[in-house]
Every structure is written in C-alpha cells, then in structure tokens.
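quick one before i forget lol
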Amino acid sequence: QAQVVESGGGLVQAGESLRLSCVGDGRTFIEHATGWFRQRTRNEREREYVAAINWKGTTTYYAPSLEGRATISRDNSKNTVYLQIDSLKPEDSAMYYCGIDLSPFRQRVTGTLTSVDFGSWGQGTQVTVSS
C-alpha cells in the first residue's frame, strides 16, 4: 500500500499563495485518485474534503471553500500531486492531509466522496494564514 508525505505548508500573510505537495511511493499512487483534506482540530471526523484529482489528472473537484482559488494537479512521473492555493484567508489555516483513493482507476472525482473513501494518510503539513 502506498504511503504519502505532504509538504509545502507554512506561515503566510492573507492574500499570499502556497503550493502543497503530496509525494507517494509505489505504483499504487499513480493508479489511484488523490484527495486533499484539511483539519482544524484534533478530531479526525472533522477532516474537510477540499480537493481531489483522478488517477490520470483529467478530472478534478474543489470544495466551495476553495473554488476559484485553488488548482490541483499531478505529475505521475514524479509520483506527486500538488495543491496550489491562492488568495489565502485566515480561515484556510489548518493541517492539510492528502489521501489515496481506496478504489483504483476512478474516472471522476466529485463532492460525494468523503474521507472514508481515502486512506494511506500522511503526517500532514500545517498552513497558517495571518490577517
């Protein structure tokens, strides 16, 4: 089962941008969709689904909270999925996690997916946005 490592978080001012990276290992990573989630508390049940990309990189999903400000992309030659967030707001502050879709070769990623559909979570990367 693939493992992932998230990076790219940091402390930024409101209005700035960050690009988060999710690096996976193994063939499983490139054969599965990847989702980005964020969590503001220690309660994993409050993990918010914010973006996803299918295994080929041809379909994407964005939560309304990020729609128009974020771009998710993947480079399967580097086993990496990126989440670029522009015009960051203080309410974007959270620990950001990526997860691997438990179903291989999913063609479309939609808002009906939840954290239950993903696994192989990394340790997360902290994003803090100051006003």
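fyi The chain has a mean pLDDT of 95.
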